[in-house]
Hints:
Elements: H1 2-26, H2 30-52, H3 58-82, E1 86-93, H4 98-106, E2 110-117, E3 122-131, H5 135-145, E4 150-154, H6 162-184
Antiparallel strand pairs: 1-3, 1-4, 2-3
Amino acid sequence: MWDIMLIFFIQIVxxxxxxxxxxxxxxxQKERASFVGALEALVYIFGVSLVLSGEQSIGAMxxxxxxxxxxxxxxxxxxxxxxxxYTAYNVNLQSKNEALIEKLxxxxxxxxxxxxxxxxxxxxxxxxxxxxxxxPKLEVLIEEYEPKAFIISYEPRKFKGGFLVxxxxxxxxxxxxxxxxxTEV
Length: 185
């Protein structure tokens, strides 16, 4: 019985690690993916050796499968909490909502405004790039100022230049300067 419980818990640990490794690879974070991948392999080999050692019990196989399923669920929760990466939003508006645009910019979102021709009238599109961790706040702001907005979001794989990249570089330089001051002391 102890082996069956251990197999179950190993799977609950293994699959979220597998999820994170996959996310890091997709986000082009090779160093993190390599580290997590080595940990994943260690846990996997330990779990499989337990399943394959001794007698092949149905309980061990069921525990392995259930742990895998629960691990997928937990991996999704962990990935959502970490919110690694960025999301691009295209927000389509029926009117040029200056209050929304100003509020978004005051909150630190980079906003680009486009005017376009819709079927019945002129339309406006906001293009916004944000960290995934800031998505919920962005969505609340849009809903508050423009409840009828049509929103499309996607995860960009690469980007270069622009407002957000300049802000990220400034933050990175400030962190480096703080580290240098700490090491000087």
